[in-house]
Structures are given as structure tokens and as C-alpha cells.
Amino acid sequence: MSPCLTLIGNYVSPYVRKVLACLELKGLDYQIDPITPFIGDDRFTQLSPLRRIPVLIDGGLVLNDSSVICQYLEDRWAQPSLYPIDVADRAKARWVEEYCDTHLAGALIWKLFYQKAIRRHFFQEEPDEALVAHACAVEIPAALDQLERWAPVDGYLFGSLSIADISVASYFRTASFVRYMIDADRWPRTAALVARVQALPPFQKLAKLEEVVLRVPFAQHRDALAAAGAPLTADTMATLTPRKGVPRFA
């Protein structure tokens, strides 16, 4: 049996979802402190100097950044593998993951989800509607055009399910929380790929817990998740006063 790992981060985050999907697919035991980065206390700052999630704790080891964490899980628990065996395909899969973590996240998360959900509900600020409109009209369609060129007719990006597919699906899942859906007529391969990955049992399991979080105010997240059977830590680093971390994008 694997040691019990501790993950810090909220279920609605695409970065956290990527790690959770890897943990679930690899069958690893873990517990989670489901905070958002905006309500972490000073202990959280010590673990995550940029005040970002996810954070993984494995005994005395503390790791930041979803890509670093996923690669660590793959290196330590190689089976089932979530990275292509072929060296070239493995490099390409990491590039797709990086594309999602930076360019796709910049449009879907920071210029759409953050503006429409986080700014309004956490910081009582109005979204930048011009930023949202430009992302929806220009940046997200351009990213989808690129993904459509990569997406297969069926199956997964590199044959077997990999970190690339997990990454793509994770970002569009969070975008769906502010009602963004891929136009399947315009981008049929990408829409089908995302649907295939999100239909997998680990994603469906996580989706139920995500929906719990979305239904209640953040002060009630922990109690609601405990009632839903989430594997929570005994203690939490959450506070009730949100504060911003170091921004990912200028």
C-alpha cells in the first residue's frame, strides 16, 4: 500500500484536478485540505511561497506546481503510466500540458473563470468585461483551433490516456463552471476528446465533489465535503479572510 499523501488545494481548480486525477488513476491513498489559495493562512504561505495551489506533501517532502507534482507521482509510482512510453511522444505530451497550464489557462481561467467567479465571489469586485469578451471572441477560439489540430478522431492524444489528455479536460471542466462549453460543431475533435476524458470514472468521482463545492459558500466547503465523503485532512490551513497571491499573468 502506498503512503498517504496530503494535497492542499480546492476541487474546482484545474491545477488541483490534474493532480487529483493522477492520484485517482494511480490508485494512491491521499488526504486533501480543500482550500483555495486566496484563504490560506501563514502556514500555507510557508509551504507555497507564491500562495498557489496545489501543494503535495509526502512525508517531509513538499512540492509545488501541478506539473512538478504529476511528474513526481509518475516517477515514484510508475504504473499505471500516465506519460507516453515513446521519448518523442512523452516530450510532446509535456508540451501539451505546458500549453494548457500557461496559454489555455491564461484565457480560460484567468481571463474567464477568475473574472466571472473569483473576483465577484471572493473579492466583491466587478469582472473586467472587456477582458472576458476578448478572451471569448479571440483567445479561446484561437486556442481551440490549435487543440483541434492536435486532437485525434477518437481515442487519446498519444494513443493511451496521458497527462496531455488530463490537462486539456481539466481546464475545460473549470471553464464549464462559468458556463463555457466547446462548440462541438466548430471543434468536434476537441469537444469529443474532452467528453471522453471527463466521462472516465476518476473524473466523474471528482465531478461529484466539485458540485458539492459549487453549491455552498466557501466557509461551508469543508463541512459539505466531509458529508460527501471526501478524504479530508484532520486540520485545515483555511481562513475566512481572502487575500491575493502572486499573479500568474501580468
State the share of residues found in helices, binned by percent: 40-55%
SSE series: EHEHEEHHHHHHH
Give me the side-by-side strand order of the main sheet: 2-1-3-4
Mean pLDDT: 91
Kindly provide the name of the CATH class of the largest domain.
Mainly Alpha
Tell me about the largest β-sheet: 4 strands, mixed
- Write down the domain tally: 2
Shape designation: globular
CATH topology of the largest domain: Glutathione S-transferase Yfyf (Class Pi), Chain A, domain 2
Commentary on this structure:
The protein has helices at residues 14-25, 42-47, 66-76, 87-121, 129-150, 163-176, 188-198, 201-215, 221-227, and strands at residues 5-8, 30-33, 55-58, 61-64. The chain has 250 residues and is of the alpha+beta class. It folds into 2 domains: 5-81 and 205-227, 3-Layer(aba) Sandwich (Glutaredoxin); 87-198, Glutathione S-transferase Yfyf (Class Pi), Chain A, domain 2. Strands 2-1-3-4 form a 4-stranded mixed sheet, with helices on one face. A hairpin with a 2-residue loop joins strand 3 and strand 4 (61-64). Helix 4 (87-121) packs parallel to helix 6. Residues 246-250 have low confidence and may be disordered.
